[in-house]
Amino acid sequence: QVQLVESGGGLVQAGDSLRLSCAASGRTSSIRAMGWFRQAPGKEREFVAFIIWSTGGTYYADSVKGRFTISRDNAKNTVYLQMNSLKPEDTAVYYCAVAARLSRLGSRDGYDDWGQGTQVTVSS
């Protein structure tokens, strides 16, 4: 099991930037990839981005590509999500997650452990 703690959320205006952090602890040797998901009110949790732990390879949802950047610090077992040019439609609770296998990383089903979430609110 891996424990995850997100931080960095808050209230911002459209066009602003935020950086989210997610620190992992516990059985961190099991981490093969880490991802970010988000869930807006009344909607299902949707994929945002993932990063392959060993290589740093990344993949993004079309809705955030070019605006968001996922990165990691392997030594700190921490993943980041730099969010630029934020839009009101980015408003959601953002969750980080750990994948113990390199499979279905663009889906919730590919992940094994989840953080508690951090609220991001973007005003217009």
Features:
124 residues, mainly beta, single chain, 0% helix, 7-stranded mixed β-sheet, 4-stranded antiparallel β-sheet
Descriptive account of the structure:
This protein has 124 residues and is mostly beta strands. The chain contains no helices and 11 strands. Strand 5 and strand 6 form a beta hairpin. The termini are far apart.
Q: Helix count, per DSSP?
A: 0
**Helicity range:** under 10%
Radius of gyration: 13 Å
Secondary-structure element series: EEEEEEEEEEE
| Sheet with the most strands, sense and barrel status | 7 strands, mixed
Unreliable runs, pLDDT <50, ≥5 residues? none
List how many beta strands DSSP finds. 11
Q: Give the overall pLDDT as a whole number.
A: 97
Q: Strand fraction band?
A: over 45%
Helix and strand content put the structural class at mainly beta
Which outline best applies? globular
Calculate the terminal CA-CA distance, rounded to whole Å. Answer: 39 Å
Characterize this entry briefly.
With 124 residues, the protein is mostly beta strands. The chain is built from no helices and eleven strands.
Describe the SSE topology:
Blueprint: E1 2-7, E2 10-13, E3 18-26, E4 33-39, E5 46-52, E6 58-60, E7 68-73, E8 78-83, E9 92-99, E10 113-114, E11 118-123
Parallel strand pairs: 2-11
Antiparallel strand pairs: 1-3, 3-8, 4-5, 4-9, 5-6, 7-8, 9-10, 9-11
